[in-house]
Amino acid sequence: MLGPVRAALYESNGLAGDVLRIAEVDRPEPGPGQVRVKIEVSGVNPTDWKSRSGATGRPVSGFQIPHHDGAGVIDAVGPGVEPGRVGQRVWTWLAAYGQPWGTAAEWCVIPGDQAVPIPDGVSAELAASLGVPAMTAHRCLFADGPLHGRSVLVAGGAGAVGHFAIELAKHAGARVAATVSGPVKADLAARSGADLVVNYKDADAADQLASFAPPDRIVEVALGANLALDLALSGPQTRIVTYASEATDPVLPVRAAMTANVSLRFVLLYGVPRAALVQAAADITQALADGALTELPVIRFRLDECAAAHDAVQAGAVGKVLVVP
Ligand SMILES: NC(=O)c1ccc[n+]([C@@H]2O[C@H](COP(=O)([O-])OP(=O)(O)OC[C@H]3O[C@@H](n4cnc5c(N)ncnc54)[C@H](OP(=O)(O)O)[C@@H]3O)[C@@H](O)[C@H]2O)c1
Fold first, then answer.
1. DSSP state string for 152-210
2. What percent helix, strand, coil does the chain show, rounded to 5?
3. Which of 83, 91, 37 is nearest to 280 (CA)?
4. What pLDDT score was predicted for residue 308?
5. How far does CA 94 lie from the centroid of its chain?
6. Which of 19, 222, 310, 316 shows the greatest Cβ crowding within 10 Å of its Cβ?
7. Which phi and psi angles does 220 have, rounded to 5°?
8. pLDDT category, 56, cuts 50, 70, 90?
């Protein structure tokens, strides 16, 4: 008889310190098409605290173990999954979506195609950082076609999504500029491989980015705050792809958008077609194997510090917040 699983979980929405607790739950058995993963490292993203807080309006049914992203080893497979996958090191994506078994636990169960083999030599920390950020970055970059020889502007190039947007765009053969708010983040964006890094708070940011105008993609984290800058740089081939909302929705300057002939796209990972997600996971794994993806500085918490990990992400921690079960 296998023992229970130690997990961080919540049964209602609220503040991290109020609703997140450590508990033991029955060890899940993988169902048809599923694998069970012994979690080594769990990655925390803004969506995890937003879902827990109730901000996203997703109701909790029973209990919820948070976190989509993780790295670990498959220790059991359900019916229909190749038994040879037992023992495989994997990274996970969208583990906690539509089911209670997120990665903030010693074990989780997940559909087999959401547990992706990790290439040799890749750390668990990097593998556990990929799911939400790299998949989002991939969709923003490639939903409108390949980028070889194209140019990309990544707003917020030191953020988790921004970091992988820079690295995936460089891996795809694009020229990449990034914006940041100060020197520490400028250093991170430059280390990710950005060819040009500009402080978006500079009054002449558009002039500094002139050699990238018009970019083929703008991967945008703050459409309202950056709209004037984005439109100043945009042309008919520019697709501004927004993946985050701000406290207040922007007012669209229609004449300026028409003048630029710009196109807008919006991305929410939960609604991206499954085939595109599976392709993104394959492309990201290839980039990993090619050595094109790197870790952000890691901020590590124990499982019993999961509430503090959520608060750190909510407070805008610089780097990648990880929880070790
Ligand atoms: N749509 C989706 O599916 C999806 C997927 C992943 C994440 N998200 C959302 O995207 C946001 C970022 O996620 P993350 O994990 O990358 O967070 P993160 O690691 O905290 O990064 C956010 C970055 O955005 C920068 N930023 C803030 N305002 C900016 C501005 N006006 N111009 C340029 N950069 C700016 C921040 O730096 P400074 O404040 O110092 O500039 C920070 O580096 C969150 O709101 C998250 O919920 C959405």
1. EEEETTTSHHHHHHHHHHHHTT-EEEEEESSHHHHHHHHHTT-SEEEETTSTTHHHHTG
2. 35, 25, 40
3. 91
4. 98
5. 10
6. 310
7. -115, 125
8. confident
Cβ count near 54 (within 10 Å): 15
Rounded distance from Cα 243 to ligand 1 centre (Å): 9
Residue 269 has pLDDT above 60, yes or no: yes
Q: Which of 97, 139, 221 to mutate to test the pocket of ligand 1 (most atoms within 8 A of CB)?
A: 221
Nearest CA residue ID for atom 22, ligand 1: 159
Where do the DSSP E strands lie in the chain?
5-9, 21-25, 34-43, 69-77, 89-92, 107-111, 115-117, 151-155, 175-180, 196-199, 217-220, 239-242, 263-266, 298-302, 320-324
d(CA 64, CA 281): 24
C-alpha 157 – ligand 1 centre gap (Å): 9
Given a contact cutoff of 8 angstroms between Cβ atoms, the answer to whether 5 and 291 are in contact is no
Residue nearest to atom 38 of ligand 1 (CA): 181
4-46 pLDDT, tens digit per residue, is 999 999 999 999 999 999 999 999 999 999 999 999 999 999 9
Protein residue with its CA nearest to atom 18 in ligand 1: 159
Q: Is the pTM of this model over 0.90?
A: yes
